[in-house]
Amino acid sequence: MSAIFFAGIDLGSTMTKAVIINSDEEICSAVIHHTGAEHRQLANEAMEEALAECDLDIDNITFIVATGYGRITVPFADTQVTELTCHARGVSALFPDAKLVIDIGGQDAKGMQINNGRLIDFVMSDKCAAGTGRFFEIMANTLDIDIDELGNFSLKAENKVSVNSTCTVFARQEVISRLSEGESVEDVLAGIHDAIAVRTVRMLHKLKVEPDVIFTGGVAENKGVVQALENRLGCRIFVPENPMLTGALGAAVIAKEKALKALAKGEHIQKEKRQLDKASFFRKGTS
Amino acid sequence: MNNECFIFNERLDTHLRNRPSELEEAKRNGVKIVGFFPGNYVPEELIYASGAVPLCLIHGGNPKPAETALSSVPRVICPFARALIGEMMLKENPFYSAVDMVVAPITCQHLRKTAEIWEYRGEPEVFKLGIPHQVYDGLEVNDFAERLDALKDKLQALTGNKVTDAKLTDAVKLYNRMRQLLRKISLMRTSNTSVISSMDFIKLNHVSFYADPVFMTEVLEEIYGELAESNTASDNDAPRLLLAGPNIAMGDYRVPELVEAAGGNIVIEEICEGVRYYWNEIEAGDDLMKSLAKGYLTDRVPCAFMSSSAGKRLEFMTKLISDFHVSGVIWYELLDCEVYDSEAYFFTQKLSEQNIPMLILEADYGTADIGQFKTRIEAFIEMVKEEVE
Questions:
Q1: Are A254 and A80 in contact (CB under 8 A)?
Q2: Whether the Cβ atoms of residue A79 and residue A65 lie closer than 8 Å to each other
């Protein structure tokens, strides 16, 4: 049998991720892009790049699953699966003993209880973006620090300042007033991270906190939040090497499962005409 | 009203369309229209027996009235109560405009304040019907029967008609028949067949709140007959779900629609308001007011504003889950419905002990949360499906 490939594409609110795997679930290529207003175009670009990276054509991909909040706008996907199911599967592919997944992305936070890769319960933050990637963008801006450096700064804190607000607007005001009272940037940041940890733990109340606990999503790249969460949860937290990719990876794994299941039954699974269309989309810089 | 059909039955659809002008005509002939706030605590048969037309004011889901009310009440009043206030302020709903008097059951904080705001604005007249908040010892039946007596006096004064035992007995029979038919239709869903979708069943309930009860009962007989005939086994393997919550208003169909679109099958509703309470009939005894009090207050499963309600409702829900072969519960509560929200945790825990997952959705009337709802509902259905497989 010639090598077969599966793809997952995760259109998040902020980032678009594409992952291609082979039948051994090894990652052949992975791409992360900013999500813009033109979802469809972006999904195309991310997919093209992922294909180019492993020297494949779209027709070489047996099955494609789209996930994330823009999942229905992916024109070339064979089916859609929600990000909750995909995260559960993606995390389990990396951490087989995972029981609880915390995912904090660009605009929302989720907690997932999983068992053998299956989602068994979940919670999601409400429509407010408090404590998510968007929140940290504003904080980084307010403190005039690169967003990637927030974690390192807060780990140098000596006396964590108490921050009560996690609402982006109020927290910003609170941070400014703490700074004007003379608190150090490091101590204020540690306070912010702790406030986010408290909020996240509260969101998880309905789930069981049992090891292994895995933290994914863009915010998991912030070591300050990881440490604050470990303190508040009282257990070790594992972060994948690339925490933004678990959704797309899970989608690719599900693509493989669905495809193999259908093939075993002798069913045709691919969408009729799958293409990376461009014609229907107006794009800046092209005529 | 637009030209789209509201309900699958053409006769009912036409009837609903013509109903406002019918009511106007009746008013010109001296008939009184008595509206009441939902919650299934106001005996319609009592209003009907007085010669007045009972109308349950159950419109909601549209953001405009709920937003309009914000000039009178704070945002912490639930969107359904705000919609009631807003509709009254906007005067755009022909059913609400037709009302000569409104009966407001004093249940939760939100409807209590809604009654006061309607009262404050003077038109139409408001009759506040106190509902005992605990059902322990039998005393509450006498209490409620006395309050119903006061309502009867009020209705007699309004209409100039006497509510005789004979008229009341007939009205009880009529409404019992309507409840019985709805129950029979609902119970058809216990088998693995999707004879009627949840959306259609809920809409049937909603129409029954505005339709002429004699006509409604006649059409329900017809619908029941048709469904019974077409009740053949189908291979629908969509996960069977129970929809629970405080209120589902006429027009607030986002959740059942999203569930259907995501491949879920709601087979039974456990809703306080918006679905007529059809499990029990009124057992007419010698003292009809007491029979009504018993039927409407103690024989039924209590709403969440009642003391010690959760245990009784859990017991009822557990029975529904088993009778209707349900594998997941969708709990749809309105924003700031604190009594339901406080019980959500208890239900989540208790149902998880029975391996029944429960999804909690909390919403205002608006569109901001539609994307999140979609993801949650789809993920929940994916999860329940895997469990079933």
A1: no
A2: yes
**Local confidence band at B25 (pLDDT 50, 70, 90 cut-offs):** very high
Q: How far apart are the first and last CA of chain B?
A: 44
* φ, ψ of residue A9 in degrees (nearest 5): -130, 130
Q: What's the CATH number where A190 sits?
A: 3.30.420.40
Interface of A with B in 198-217 (CB under 8 A): 206
Query: Which residues of chain B neighbour A69 with C-beta distances below 8 Å?
Result: 371, 375
Q: Are residues A100 and A152 in the same domain?
A: yes
Considering only the beta carbons, identify the residue of A108, A122, A127 that sits closest to B379.
A122
Contact A89, A114 (CB under 8 A): no
Phi, psi of B33 (to 5 degrees): -110, 120
CATH class of B10-160: alpha beta
Q: Which of A85, A113, A126, A261 to mutate to test the interface with B (most CBs of B within 10 A)?
A: A85
Q: Are residues A24 and A61 in the same domain?
A: yes
| Model pLDDT, residue B369 | 75
Range of the domain at A171: 96-238
* Cα(A165)–Cα(A183) distance, integer angstroms: 17
Considering only the beta carbons, identify the residue of B368, B372, B387 that sits closest to A124. B372
Is A185 within the bounds of a domain? yes
Is residue A270 in some structural domain?
A: no
C-alpha dist (Å) from residue A18 to A9, A64, A222, A242:
4, 10, 22, 13
How many other CB atoms sit within 10 Å of the CB of residue B329?
24
Q: Residue B271: which H helix or E strand, with range?
A: strand B265-273
In a domain, A275, yes or no: no
Q: What is the DSSP string of B120-143?
A: HH-SSEEEEEE--S--SSSHHHHH
User: In this predicted structure, what is the pLDDT of residue A268?
Assistant: 75
How far does A120 lie from chain B, in Å, by closest CA? 6
A82 and A100 in a single domain? The answer is: no
User: What pLDDT score was predicted for residue A206?
Assistant: 82
Strands A15-22 vs A5-11: parallel, antiparallel or unpaired: antiparallel
Q: Which residues, in sequence order, are bridge partners of residue A9?
A: A18, A66
Q: Are A67 and A10 in contact (CB under 8 A)?
A: yes
pLDDT at A170: 80
Interval A73-125: pLDDT, tens: 888 899 999 999 999 999 999 999 999 999 998 888 999 999 988 999 999 88
**Contact residues on chain B for A124, CB-CB shorter than 8 A:** 372, 375-376
Q: Do A229 and A115 share a domain, yes or no?
A: yes
Choose among B149, B157, B236, B154: nearest CA to B198. B236
**C-beta atoms of B348 and A124 within 8 A:** no
Return the pLDDT at B134: 85
Distance in angstroms (rounded) separating the CA atoms of residues A180 and A188: 11
On whether residue A119 sits in a domain, the answer given is: yes
Task: Look at B375 and A83 and tell me if their CB atoms are within 8 Å.
Answer: yes
Confidence of residue A166 (pLDDT cuts 50, 70, 90): confident
A59/A149 same-domain check: no
Pick from A84, A108, A118: CB nearest B379: A84
Closest CA of chain A from B353, distance in Å = 13
Work out how many CB contacts closer than 8 A connect A with B: 44
A118–chain B Cβ distance below 8 A for any pair:
yes
Nearest to B348 among A82, A85, A206 (CB): A206
Six-digit token string for A32: 């992360």
* Interface check B352 vs A, CB under 8 A: yes
ipTM score for this prediction: 0.80
